[in-house]
Amino acid sequence: MDDEGLWYFAFGSNMDSGALERRGVVPIARQPATIPQYRLCFNVPGLPYLEPAMASIEPRPASAKCPDVHGVAWRLRSNEWKNVVATEGGGLAYRTLAIEGLLLGDGTAKSCTFMTLVAWPTITRAAAPSVRYRDLLLRGAQDAGLPQDYLDYLLALPAHTYNPSQFGASVPGARDLAVAYARFWNTNVLLGHALYPKNVVVGASRAECLRTLCATLCADGDTVLIPAPCSDEVLIGLPPGIKTLFIHNPGWQHENALPYSLELLKETLQTSGDKVKALLLANPGNPIARSLDDSALISLLLFCQRHDLHLIADETRITASFPEEGRDSPSCSNFARLASSVLRLNLIQLGCDPSCVHVIWSVAEMFGQ
Questions:
Q1: Does 362 appear as a known binding residue?
Q2: First vs last Cα of the chain: how many Å apart?
Q3: Are 342 and 207 members of one domain?
Q4: Is 245 helix (H, G, I), strand (E, B) or coil?
Q5: Over the stretch 180-193, which tens digit does the pLDDT of each residue have?
Q6: What pLDDT, on a 0 to 100 scale, did the predictor assign at position 125?
Q7: Closest CA to 72 of 130, 114, 24, 118
Q8: Number of folded domains in the chain?
Q9: Residues 6+ apart with CB under 8 A from 193
Q10: What positions does the domain Aminotransferase class I/classII large occupy (predicted)?
Q11: To pair with 203 at 20 to 30 A between CA atoms, which of 1, 22, 71, 209?
Q12: Does the annotation flag 303 for ligand binding?
């Protein structure tokens, strides 16, 4: 691969330039494109209820009444393509594919070899995307100037709407909300230790909480470690002056184990050359929705403690994932049987400084926007 880069064919959320910017990718050029005899599909596992499936492409059956997939061809440098692969979950949610297609422009079509990412593994039966995800694709396609008939096709796609139960009356004021939040978790979840309102900070959104937290912990130029795969949604909220360093291990297979070895973490710290202040962990992961088990979380907590790192656990989607049947007492509520959360661990007994452990949680993600 030469320094002039390659053409990356984006058909999903990466059609939006903002999605690439959040991944630290600055394309050289952009052009509408299409892949003949392939169609858009939604067969990448997402998060239950909220984001049922993400986009991929597959050969289009001759009988299918849908257009050839269109997308955005981004000209990327080799290191930026590697960043896209790592943050999209190359080897886990997606695999790389070289494919022949057409660059479109000024009424002409030019043959081109693209690199792209296709589903692996896939959902047995394709699901409908969420309304949010479908609209994200539509905005990216509109911004790229894709043909109107393809925009109409995207707009007409069936989309999933999540209708959660209502969560009582609204609670006025941040202090009252902090009290209600602490009471909710202390009452409904098997916590490792009590959660006090004084340890709860309320923000307008998940992104605002992450932005404020990182700005408090880090100075401009400091680095945050982020395990890949990582959705661009996880990156929203990072302050502009904060650097990101992605950790990628394509050999991750075990369902609930660490997606990388502690040796890889240590090596990354030693060779980064930057001042690393924190590890940002999405649990469950986004994409592919895998949750870490208690032993994996404990390993990360102890690692961060040894290396003087803050652990930021983004658990905004944790209520969309439940552990295997029978993990806890059958009498426990569904909330009590949530997938592993840092809040379920006793940090003092583990020898960890609680002031260096931060959990981000969102009422909106659980009970609806």
A1: no
A2: 44
A3: yes
A4: strand
A5: 888 887 887 767 77
A6: 60
A7: 114
A8: 2
A9: 346, 347, 348
A10: 173-316
A11: 22
A12: no
- The whole-number pLDDT of residue 150 equals 96
Q: Which residue has the tokens 């656990």?
A: 313
On whether both 218 and 315 belong to a single domain, the answer is: yes
- Any known ligand binding at 133? yes
Residue 313's domain comprises 203-323+333-367
For the chain, the 3-state helix, strand and coil shares in percent, each to the nearest 5, are 30, 25, 45
Looking up tokens 């990101």, which residue turns up? 244
Quick one: 349 and 249 in the same domain? yes
166 within domain boundaries: no
Q: Of 124, 156, 188, which closes a domain?
A: 156
- Of 156, 186, 219, the residue that ends a domain is 156
Which CATH number does the domain housing residue 112 bear?
3.10.490.10
User: Pick from 267, 287, 274, 289: which is nearest to 339 by CA?
Assistant: 289
150 is in an annotated binding site: no
Rounded CA gap, 109 and 63, in Å? 25
Task: For residue 11, say whether it is annotated as part of any ligand binding site.
Answer: yes
pLDDT at 138 over 80: yes
Check if the beta carbon of residue 146 is closer than 8 Å to that of residue 32. yes
